Amino acid sequence: xxxxxxxxxxxxxxxxxxxxxxxxxxxxxxxxxxxxxxxxxxxxxxxxxxxxxxxxxxxxxxxxxxxxxxxxxxxxxxxxxxxxxxxxxxxxxxxxxxxxxxxxxxxxxxxxxxxxxxxxxxxxxxxxxxxxxxxxxxxxxxxxxxxxxxxxxxxxxxxxxxxxxxxxxxxxxxxxxxxxxxxxxxxxxxxxxxxxxxxxxxxxxxxxxxxxxxxxxxxxxxxxxxxxxxxxxxxxxxxxxxxxxxxxxxxxxxxxxxxxxxxxxxxxxxxxxxxxxxxxxxxxxxxxxxxxxxxxxxxxxxxxxxxxxxxxxxxxxxxxxxxxxxxx
Length: 328
What we know:
By secondary structure, the protein is mostly helical. The chain is 72% helix and 4% strand.
């Protein structure tokens, strides 16, 4: 063995150069490592020597791994993004009816006929709305004004700290003519239409963003080994966020779904003659449990979607940067 060490001394010296930097972080470092290994192999007097062969094969494996591409994207994130896009589509589809209704309401206000709008003294103004006041407030300027005044008075009496401010707002609305009330109502409905349209646009944009992000995430998810090594030396905040966020999201989803599998509660009734009867009660269908279950499922789904979109976005950006560096 000592003779083999002497024979392979030159070759081992090449391997010694690589011990200080075993894992290359750039393509140049990986190619340089591969070249040094080839020099070591060529310089070996006996390439089958155990010490040389073991060290050489270990380092050759690292060099070959570094120069190859490896899958780094995760199916769980892709599925989460797809589910998120589907949910956003459903919300955006539902939002279209809200947008349409907002436009109809605005048009209804625009068609108000000019009439005289009477004032209502603060002391005689009621403080409670009827069940139809909200839905009927847009049918005429009179109903709109009464609705606003009742709302302001009830809030003023309920909040002493804001009484003066709300009372001043009441007097301002009360003194308005038809034209002024019409302008206020149109402004309110214009803002409502804008808000509904903005919300619909945001839902659609987020859905499209996720659908574009998925293939981009997969395409950039095949980095070279040296790229993975370089990334692993960066701060691990993203991995912590992904692991913790995914764990919390899956816990919420699991808890929500698992609650539907709870066994029925068996109740017992004893009659006056001493006979006992059993009956099943679906206790887990109580109102509170249903609400908690829905909250857990919604929170879990939303959190999983957010984690997926954040992680996929950052990793895709990093992947594009690495691809640009390679091309540059």
